[in-house]
Amino acid sequence: xxxxxxxxxxxxxxxxxxxxxxxxxxxxxxxxxxxxxxxxxxxxxxxxxxxxxxxxxxxxxxxxxxxxxxxxxxxxxxxxxxxxxxxxxxxxxxxxxxxxxxxxxxxxxxxxxxxxxxxxxxxxxxxxxxxxxxxxxxxxxxxxxxxxxxxxxxxxxxxxxxxxxxxxxxxxxxxxxx
Length: 178
What we know:
Blueprint: E1 10-15, H1 22-32, E2 37-43, H2 54-64, E3 71-76, H3 80-87, E4 91-96, H4 99-115, E5 120-125, H5 135-143, H6 154-170
Parallel strand pairs: 1-2, 1-4, 2-3, 4-5
């Protein structure tokens, strides 16, 4: 009896991760159990003005996922389906928080499948305790020095504090109370 070698099951979890939240981490941890390799791919979206650079986001993700041996951190600036071919991956992982998310993600999944019928998208429901959570909410809370310790990994909390300390130093002298 001859042993057959199967290719590793590779999935990609794409996103901006600006910054990575505990909601993202929930999806990463759960998806890493479903695939041999999970690539968390930071999108370099030139139309957005991110708080963290792509390299900073990659470093934060690498630190936050260091306990997950089958998780790789990468970045890309191409069509996702082209990146999937390059990485020899066939599954896109997407987290869903709400019906609104589902409608948007279904449109993306259908478009990706039209561009490359070998690519499938799986949706993972976010843990209900993170259903309200988004990177935008985290950034807004952190910008006003609010407590984000329950919302992001420790590394991200520290990085947010540093970002907003530096930003606030740059705008000293402005009186925002008027």
